[in-house]
Amino acid sequence: MTGRNWTELFFLDEAVAMAAGHRPCAYCRRSNYNAFSDAWGGRLKAPQMDTVLHAARAVHGARALQTHHADAATLPAGTFIKTTEINLLTTEAALPYSPSGYGAPKSRPTGNVIVLTAQPMIDVLRRGYAPKLHHTAG
Fold this sequence. Notes:
Elements: H1 14-19, H2 30-40, H3 46-57, E1 68-71, E2 80-82, E3 86-89, E4 93-98, E5 101-102, E6 106-107, E7 112-115, H4 119-126
Antiparallel strand pairs: 1-7, 2-3, 2-7, 3-4, 4-5, 4-6
């Protein structure tokens, strides 16, 4: 651990971290943070982004996370969705997620799906930020 003002968090990959509402670290992953900030719009500092992300992700007063529905065709690569299982969307496919990695690619779903990635993160993905993925993503 760093001994600084934050807790180091470990996720399978950056797409999972983003779905959980976490941006790249401005201290240890500066170039990724800068690219993320640029895709965000470059106007907010890290603590301000964190406030927006928390509000978009957490259900106020409950130990639960917000989800929403969207047409799968409108969602960018890097978005996590839930159908009968949890999947990471790529440009062409859906990758089944498990804590140890991704499964074999499946057809990208069509129609309405439950979206696990918060809207501000989806906006960042749409603006071109590409999260670093676990090697099992292909």
